[in-house]
Each structure stands twice: as structure tokens, then as C-alpha cells.
Amino acid sequence: QVQLVESGGGLVQPGGSLRLSCVTSGISFNLYSMSWYRQTPGMTRDLVASITGITEVTSYADSVKGRFTISRDNARKTVYLYMNSLKFEDTAVYYCHAYLSDNTNFWGQGTQVTVSS
């Protein structure tokens, strides 16, 4: 059974930091590209950051470049999203996504991040 379990969300003030974690099970983690998406009510689910499996090449949405960092620990089958200098507009539900080139993919259940003063 495949599971992606996110954690680390919460309430943070503008300018603050959070670290999201996504622990996976049931997949050959090191083969999967891993991504973080986010979604606000009534909006599309948008890609925030991704990291490839073997080569660990990263990419970021323009809105988070320089503030967020994605990383992975293949031994722990976990992907992280370090979020710094958080802004009000970063408020969203953040989802973990695992993807293979044959379009096999899985989603986590999401974790809420709220940036508020």
C-alpha cells in the first residue's frame, strides 16, 4: 500500500519559517521525482518545487525561488520543503506528490500552512 504522509504545517507569522516533511512508504522512493504543490480554495493545485530521483535536480516556481528549498533523504524515503521568509500569499494546503516517467503518481493528503499576523 502506497502512503505519502505530510507533516509540519501550521500557523506562522509573516517572515517566519516552516519545514514540511513527506514520509513515503510502498514505493521505490529513489526512482520517483518528488514535488510539493499547493492549493487555496477555489484555485488550481500549483507546483511549488520538485526534485528528481537519482540526480536530485531541483526546480522552483518563480514565486518561491530564493525562499523555499526542496530536498530528499532517500534512506528515510522522505522529501522536505524548507520555507523561509513566508508571506501571506503562501497560505495554502501543501501536497506531496510522487511521480514516475510512466505517469505513475501518488498524492499525499495535504498539510495546511497559514501565514498570518
Give a verbal description of the structure.
This protein has no helices and 11 strands. With 117 residues, it is mainly β. It is globular and about 40 Å long.
Q: Share of helix among residues?
A: under 10%
Which sequence of SSEs, written as H and E, runs from N to C? EEEEEEEEEEE
Number of strands: 11
Structural class: mainly beta
Q: Approximately how much beta-strand content do the residues carry?
A: over 45%
Shape by Cα distribution = globular
Please report the distance between the alpha carbons of the first and last residues.
40 Å
Task: Summarize this entry quickly.
The protein has 117 residues and is mainly β. The protein contains no helices and eleven strands.
Which descriptors apply to this entry?
single chain, mainly beta, 7-stranded mixed beta sheet, 0% helix
Task: List strands and helices in order, with pairings.
Layout: E1 3-7, E2 10-12, E3 18-25, E4 33-39, E5 46-51, E6 58-60, E7 68-73, E8 78-83, E9 92-99, E10 105-107, E11 111-115
